[in-house]
Amino acid sequence: MIQRETKLPRDYEVMDMVLQRGDSGELARLLSISPQLVRAWCRSPETDDEFATGKFGPLARLRTLISMIREDDRKPDRAYPIGRYIADLLSGVFVPLPVHHPAADAGILQEVSKVLRETGDAIEASRKAWFEKTPGKITAKEHSRCAAEIDEAIVALVQLKIWIEAHTNDR
């Protein structure tokens, strides 16, 4: 069963944002479906209203797949390849946030600072390896350490951003 989203924007609103006038015909042709179905993906799929004409679209189905995996495993790890795949399609990056969030105190700033120092150290070690120790090459161990530190830094920065947004007074 497809679960309803509770946060905005909803999947049909995202579809409505990204599909431009005339896209429904082209997308319908590419997917071998009707243009009416593509347009229905851009409308609310409410089923209790006799006037609602929306249909659950690909984003709602993707959300259902991820929810099913999370329910099966009690954690989202097995669904991470989906996030990485979509991020790759968009020339982006997928770095999952940890389940626990740091306490809302000055400790978060110290933790972010520590993580960024460690990331800087890993990047510096990679730079030295690439340019000084073994020009043009980085060992698998150096790559692994640097990549892990960068992922940790991204997570720390996102957590800091969330913390700052939650504690901004002039909203």
Description:
The chain has 171 residues and is mainly α. 61% of the residues lie in helices and 0% in strands. Helix 6 runs antiparallel to helix 7 (140-166). The longest helix is centred in the C-terminal third of the chain and has 28 residues, at 106-133. The mean pLDDT is 83.
Question: Can you summarize the main beta sheet?
Answer: none
Euclidean distance between termini CA atoms: 37 Å
Instruction: Tell me, briefly, the overall form.
Output: extended
Radius of gyration: 22 Å
Number of strands: 0
Quaternary structure type: single chain
What is the helical fraction, as a range of percent? 55-70%
Helices, strands, pairings?
Blueprint (H helix, E strand, L loop, with lengths): L10 H8 L4 H9 L3 H6 L17 H16 L6 H10 L16 H28 L6 H27 L5
Helix pairs in contact: 6-7
Summary of the model, kept short:
The chain has 171 residues and is an all-alpha fold.
Keywords, separated by commas or semicolons:
61% helix, mainly alpha, 171 residues
